[in-house]
Amino acid sequence: MERILAWAQPAEGTVLDERAQALDGDTIEGDADGEQLDRADRAALRRVDGLRTELEDVTEVEYRELRLENVVLVGVYSGSTGDAENSLRELAALAETAGAQVLDGMLQRRPNPDPATYVGRGKADELAEVVQELGADTVVADSELSPSQRRALEDRVKVKVIDRTAVILDIFSQHAKSREGKAQVELAQLEYLLPRLRGWGESMSRQAGGQVGGQGAGMGSRGPGETKIELDRRRIHTRMAKLRRQIKGFAPARQAKRANRDRFEVPGVAIAGYTNAGKSSLLNRITGAGVLVENALFATLDATVRRATTPDGREFTIADTVGFVRNLPHQLVEAFRSTLEEVAESELIVHVVDGSHPDPASQIATVRDVLGETGARSIPEIVVFNKTDLISDDERLVLRGLQPDAIFASARTGEGVDEILARIAELLPRPEVEVTLLVPYDRGDVVSMLHDRFEVVQERHEEGGTRIDAKVSEAVLSQLAEFRA
Hints:
Largest sheet: 6 strands, mixed
Shape: elongated
Radius of gyration: 28 Å
Oligomer: single chain
Order of helices and strands: HHEHEHEHEHHHEHEEHHEHEHEHEHEE
Distance between the termini: 89 Å
């Protein structure tokens, strides 16, 4: 029993000096975030740290638990050391979100990654020693590896090697909830897997016969004419085609909802930004949507659209979208293009930036690059520096110099939310046609519609009905013709 209890102690190793920067701080909780039942459900599936699955005695089978994966990070950089360290800390945050424990991180400065082993051969041997010393299970590279680099590095370090893209895809697969989200993630995973298929030896069925290639296998060695790897590729292509049709099938429902909003001329606002910048928290603060909030990267993937009202009474929709990250895999950008349509079809973008992050400028550049790929570069933008309750006055001055017209806000305290709504009301398109209407008292639905969708300048109650001076759009003039005064 003492030996079993000893297993529960944390694994020994050199953990990164600083916890992943993106996961610093407490999780935002409060009435504005709703009950957060999804977060409790997700936490119930977390793996247990410090317990092993290996058995030393058959009687210990009752005490087996799934242990956390221990990883060592490695990166290659040619620019500034600060950018490389921030990128590695972000990779550590991704690994933690995926359910791993980061033991150590290594960086190598060189003009280009080694085409054979990603890092130099000497660094690969040093990495193997660190992995053996710390007892790590996995090595994670801070960029996308080619299949040959991954295989050569695995031969050197003798443990599993994955890259940044694989970690992000793993997080997406854990957090996808809707049917569309799951289909998009699976499509991205298959696109990533397709060029990385491999097999060994007798598991491969080769087309062969007679005295082939000097093998001397002779009769009876003929295969079915197609290798196993080609069969796998064909199955993957078939599955990808089915997923693309399935994702395309979700489009009509989305278009119907969007057409309904367009018919009622409800303008749309999209919240975009870096992952873990506080987009969902801000949506909850503005609308009380109750969207899942968690101090983790890519906590929410599925687009959420809610209705909100400007201070002058006009209605608009506000959509929470998937977060971005540096070196976002192109497979995900393509797979989630249908989700990102919410951004491209909106009239205004609220660009949320983590004000407490050590490098907010790179976050802004990354988000704008992805928005450019989705065709949303020309849409008006409001930059919001969130989490300002975690920064000092001097840091506010630096951020103000970075983006002079930005709004400082905090989803935790509610600071700046009223200013955001006022800026939204200022930038949303306004109806331009001025009309004077006399609406009978039994047509209260028309009065309500004018207040909800348009701008009422003046309202007076007379003997024949309600006289309203309003600004409306040309599309509804024909509907209001009978009430024109």
